[in-house]
Amino acid sequence: MRPDFKKMSLTKTDLEVVDLTRKSAECTLVLHNDDVNTFNFVIETLQELCGHTNEQAMQCTMLIHYKGKCDVKSGTAKQLKPIFEALCERGLTASIEK
User: Fold this and answer.
1) C-alpha triplet 68, 73, 77: angle, nearest 5°
2) Confidence (pTM)
3) Domains of the chain with bracketed CATH
4) Residues paired with residue 29 on neighbouring β-strands, in sequence order
5) Are 29 and 96 in contact (CB under 8 A)?
6) Which pLDDT does position 25 carry in this prediction?
7) According to DSSP H, which parts of the chain are helical?
8) Strand partners, 81
9) 64 vs 1, 9, 13, 19, 79, CA distance in Å?
10) What's the pLDDT score for residue 24?
11) Are 70 and 64 in contact (CB under 8 A)?
């Protein structure tokens, strides 16, 4: 049985507003490689601040080491800012990207 859907018309402006809303909510917290912090420190920090499992944190740490950076968390800029600040306070290099 097929549900009845009401026909809905969206204007170009409506679609642009929806797109802007979606884009503003989509941010990524990126952790960058450095020559200072140990693997264990980064793993423990990712578990504590980002809620990663041990395996997730290890994989991210390897990607950071070999690729130079890794997306470690996604969400709104408002959600990511406290985590970003905590990472920086611990001497890690991070950025929030849209």
Assistant:
1) 110
2) 0.75
3) 26-97 (3.30.1390.10)
4) 73, 96
5) yes
6) 63
7) 12-25, 39-50, 54-67, 77-89
8) none
9) 50, 45, 40, 31, 22
10) 55
11) yes
Please give the pLDDT value at position 48: 98
User: What is the layout of strands, in order, in the sheet containing 27-32?
Assistant: 69-75, 27-32, 93-97
d(CA 49, CA 25): 20
What average pLDDT values come out for the chain (98 residues) when binned by 10 residues? Answer: 38 44 74 97 98 98 98 96 98 96
CA 29 to chain centre: 4
- For the chain, how big is the Rg over CA atoms in Å? 19
Q: Give CA–CA dist 34/78, Å, rounded.
A: 25
Contact (CB, 8 A) for 85 and 27: no
The β-bridge relationship of strands 93-97 and 69-75 is unpaired
Asked whether the beta carbons of 92 and 44 are under 8 A apart, the reply is no
